[in-house]
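From the pipeline queue, job 12 of 40. The input is one protein chain; the requested action is below.

Action: predict structure.
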Amino acid sequence: MEKLDTPAYVINEKILAADMCLLRQIADQAGCRLLYSPKASSLAPVLTRVAEHVDGFACSSLFELRLVDKLCSVHGSLHLVSPLIDDAALDEFGDRLNSVTFNSLSQWQDLRPHVSASTSAGLRLNPELSFVHDPRYDPCRSNSKLGVPVSRLAEMIAADRGLLRGIDGLHFHSNCESTDFASLLATARHIQDVIPEALEEISWINLGGGYLFQSVEQSAAFFDTVALFRDGFDLQVYIEPGAAAVRRSGTVVATVRDIFPGEDCQIAVLDTSVNHMPEVLEFQFEPDVLGHVDDGVHTYSLAGCTCLAGDSFGQYAFDAPLTIGSQVTFMNMGAYSASKAHRFNGVALPTIYTRDETGSLEKIWADDFNEFARNAGKVGSPDIAPA
């Protein structure tokens, strides 16, 4: 068994490269431009590998822009897409921004003086078609903060045909980790029906993310969506996947530190936490665990190591028993785990490893007390000694 300092976050570069090649193939076949959304994972080895396959990056903040600009400045274009645009980002990046997408017409009016003449301005739409059942993750929920409702935009355009003067593109993002592109096509047709005048006036449209591309064969409705805008309105089409690019390539490896009897199974306490994989708690799902079998004879409740009662990953069964020191691997943790992880209870963040295409592991970062203290605002404080 490989020696890992756990908890560990392992990036499999072979899987990452394969998934990026698939995305590149689908984008090329569809005739659209491929951006990566670094909010899914902004780890340096992820960004530099992804940069080899994409046309650019769809960033959500000034920090993301700076990081991508520093690590991947020779690879593709820079786009800013956020519910809240900071004028500091527009001023700092100037004409290095290829596009900026505003979340509202009021934001566009307030910040348009800060937009460089060479930067293309876009506006986010709320298509008002919901496909996500949980309103916490539904961009089209009632009173959504995300984008201008398409029906309201249609009314405003009817009253003022010059409303979108200066706006070059439209953006929408209406789903979450879906594999059904029929909903994307339905959204595209709805937008076409409601605001055809707007589509005639712009030069590009961004379909956002929220879809998991699994194969070319399953992407027919996606190709139809791109064609609707590209061929029907002569638009440059962008997509900006995040999870689809990195989800499969990341694992979290933990070590069993304690085992004791529960009511109907053994409880195995790991040296990781749901705080290292926050979407487990947010989405309330049980993540995939390597070696789990539905009819396994050894059943455990895998628990995190913090004092939060709900710090638990669920029940899992194995053919062989776990022991103290056993390693447990959580699969498909490449998206949002590292970018959302935090140190509740002072539990250190996972050590980061990369596994290259030959299978070799390399440790690239390890958390320590000084990092914890720095984030507590104690830099230079005399009461904190170096670790």
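Job complete. The chain has 13 helices and 17 strands.
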